[in-house]
Amino acid sequence: MNWLKQQVANVAGTQEPVYGPSAIQSVEKQAEATSYTELRPQDLKWTAMESTSVETQTFYLIADNGHIGMAQVIYSNVAGIRTTCQFNTKIFYPDSKKTNLWTSDALDSCGFDDRMLSFYADGCAVTLSEDATSYSIKSVVNESSIVNLTVSRIAPGFQVGSNGTSYFGTDPQHPWGSMRHCFWPRCHVEGSIITKNGEVDFKGGGLFIHALQGMKPHHAAAKWNFANFQSSTYSAVMMEFTTPPSYGSTVVNVGGIAVDGEIICAGAVNSAQHTETKIDPDTEWPEPIAAKFSWNGKSEVGKTVKAELAGPLDQRLDKIDVMEKVPGFVKTLVGGVVGTKPYIYQYSPRRKMELKITVDDEEKVEEGILFSEATFIS
Length: 378
Description:
It is a single chain. By secondary structure, the chain is mainly β. The protein is 9% helix and 54% strand. Strands 1, 3, 4, 5, 6, 7, 8, 9, 10, 11, 13, 14, 15 and 16 form a 14-stranded antiparallel beta sheet that branches. Strands 17, 18, 19, 20, 21, 22, 23, 24, 25, 26 and 27 form an eleven-stranded antiparallel beta sheet that branches. A two-stranded antiparallel sheet has the order 2-12.
């Protein structure tokens, strides 16, 4: 009967019944036995589900010249009836001297290579190299944002646990939904995005995330926290979501820390806290003013690793009304659910943040660039 109720909610777009926390099998359970696994080429395959889902490949760019950017492919399926693809780009200019650039374009003739490792569409291609160490991202679908980037990993990729996936459903053997993330935490970026105001060079650092929400997004998560820190030595990434009350408001947090050629630690024993907030009068969401991100884990040789980023977030880079910005097909996924009003708050403090990292008893502190997001859905 629970399965039937869930299917009705899935198709109708309504809120789900309260199943309780036992109806999510968090990836944290996997991580108790295996904190993380390094990614193999097959772990980077597109799943392209034939049921309700949202699958993304997102490349976060932190340029040496101060620009911050993003390039993203979204592959979405609505109830197994319609598949739609979208290519998004965003540029944040240093010191907010120019208005943020945002482009979002529907893609036609979408498909994959035979191995499901590369994505193609008219005027757009995201191609994994033969040795599976770099992606080429090219797009001419929007003359305001012509993309030609290469993102190469300089540390191993990872997924938390054995497969990076949390499962939803009252029968663990037959889950009705899922959430998966895999990461290239530390990348080198070459190339540019050509805008109507000129070419923006994105040579610098980066982060790649392949994510799959195998259910309606607002059924899986009520809120999100995301942190991407890049410095000369370290990269730290964290992705946290909190389920709606239907799954017990369960918090799932995955993340890790890497240096060139090595993952220092990765797992699910991390936390994201908004240490100071204010009510946004436009949305009534508690907008974060300051935050603390904490990582905990073990190194490959068993050393205890702890790391922390904390401080004010400064003036936000942007506030995104998701229902205004996203294409119609995503609105169909969310439906007209009462209480669902998704907003994304984006930040990158102008002053460099300090990552404090301790391996056993040896502490190091290094400044770097933080890009973070706080998302509220319901």
